[in-house]
Amino acid sequence: MEDQVTRIVIMGGGPAGYEAALVAAQHGAEVTVVERDGLGGACVLYDCVPSKTFIASAGARVAFRDADELGIGTDDVDSTVHLPVVRGRVKGLALAQSADIRNRVQREGVRVVTGTARFCDDRTGMAAHRVSITSGDTTEVLAADVVLIATGATPRVIPGAEPDGVRVFDWRQIYDLPELPEHLVVVGSGVTGAEFASAFIEMGVKVTVISSRDRVLPHEDADAAAVLEDVFSERGTTLVKHARAEKIERDGTGVTVHLKGGETVRASHALMTVGSVPNTEDIGLDKIGIEPGPGGFITVDRVSRTGVPGVYAAGDCTGVLMLASVAAMQGRIAMWHALGEGVAPIKLKTVAANVFTHPEIATVGISQATIDSGEVPARTVTLPLATNARAKMEGLRRGFVKLFCRPATGVVIGGVIVAPSASELILPIALAVQNQLTVDDLALTFSVYPSLSGSITEAGRQLMRHDDLD
Ligand SMILES: Cc1cc2nc3c(=O)[nH]c(=O)nc-3n(C[C@H](O)[C@H](O)[C@H](O)COP(=O)(O)OP(=O)(O)OC[C@H]3O[C@@H](n4cnc5c(N)ncnc54)[C@H](O)[C@@H]3O)c2cc1C
Ligand SMILES: NC(=O)c1ccc[n+]([C@@H]2O[C@H](COP(=O)([O-])OP(=O)(O)OC[C@H]3O[C@@H](n4cnc5c(N)ncnc54)[C@H](O)[C@@H]3O)[C@@H](O)[C@H]2O)c1
């Protein structure tokens, strides 16, 4: 019998969609990616890539500010931020990366179609599915043996506080500011809010952060969040805690944020970072019999299957862990599974993540909160960077390395790093967690002297010392 080529349609060309497309094409499937905007998705065009490019400019200003302490005179001149140049870099890099991704997937033989994809099955329960692609006045319908939903998410809008791109912005519009705001109020203190607050603070802007909880970064390591709060307060940032924005009024000179309870915060501009909603409303889920779960997210299992045969979902539309790396892995796993390749279910406990604030906060594995709650027994050590020779040379006073291991075996189960380059430093701990290496393995590995990574091997040695006491 002749082998049938599997027809795969991927709705959305972000990290979940395009990484899946690469895997599927490499395994001989006939792949179409439908993307209404640009390849790379919101990740490349509006979210991850632009924000990190913007943060790189803020980082350059930090280096300039800190140079004096190391004996390099900047003549007390306040470095000026040329926002239109920053904006040009942000937009240019995003478009270039999107073009690179398009070329790459097309080179692998993937068909890329510009348009909006929707299911249009005649009835539920069909073995193959139908996807309509609308672009302007034209509509094309594709038959598919497998469909991957990878439609991502969109900034959440609070009614009464809608972004207008003039005084009130979401994070996708903020780069269009013609000049730095006089006073920016950041509404929401999750990862997006903390990253933008940090970047604007480091660019010299007065910032007020509205946090619905008792601290910034409520889902991150509490000690790491405390370091960031210290930096924020040292730079004159006000953190309004336990506060929810209900409405924003704007006038010729600024904005007034009305908080639940009646208080107000006045600023020149507002940035809304209150989370995202999945793009699952208008994609014809009813045609295939999928009912979205709470918040509109599509429920999937650990190999990215939805409840409907032949339909997979990956990335932000599933709400599993809203990270580009996780989206990409969910997408690849979906294709391996659909094409009958051997595949291991996704392991979220080994995901390394980073908050790109100044300093950065990187985490992997089991969290301190899980250990403190008694859910996972562990031995832990925290080494302040202030004890690291290289950190002293570089003038770094804040930050730490934390390492967690199993009590009896010393197997590394997690860690947190707070340092300017934490995103780069976390890899040895991630490698240890993924491969069940022990604190001895870390301790016996040579690190360069002097280096910040020396604190990781030192943390291993400190945990090794007590190994036989358990
Ligand atoms: C400000 C910010 C910074 C971030 N920084 C990081 C970071 O540093 N590291 C990290 O790992 N993660 C980061 N993230 C998270 C990361 O951006 C997301 O997890 C990632 O974009 C998810 O990828 P995705 O493929 O699911 O969706 P997306 O990247 O959102 O792509 C989905 C695509 O599908 C398209 N689409 C939607 N509906 C349709 C349709 N019906 N037909 C056709 N196309 C459609 C959309 O236009 C979009 O282009 C950040 C998020 C934000 C908001
Ligand atoms: N560096 C990175 O990897 C990176 C960067 C940005 C975002 N992300 C990911 O994207 C996802 C979303 O993060 P996020 O920060 O955009 O959203 P979030 O949902 O995590 O945080 C939004 C915050 O806003 C608060 N909020 C909601 N309504 C409010 C109101 N009316 N007033 C005041 N506060 C309000 C919420 O309580 C919440 O704490 C996360 O999973 C995150 O990991 C990752």
TrEMBL record:
InterPro entries: FAD/NAD-bd_sf, FAD/NAD-binding_dom, FAD/NAD-linked_Rdtase_dimer_sf, Pyr_nuc-diS_OxRdtase, Pyr_nucl-diS_OxRdtase_dimer. NAD(+) binds at residues 188-195, 275. Residues 352-459 form the Pyridine nucleotide-disulphide oxidoreductase dimerisation domain. Its cofactor is FAD. Keywords: FAD, Flavoprotein, NAD, Nucleotide-binding. FAD binds at residues 52, 316. This is Dihydrolipoamide dehydrogenase. It comes from Actinokineospora globicatena. The lineage of its organism: Bacteria, Bacillati, Actinomycetota, Actinomycetes, Pseudonocardiales.
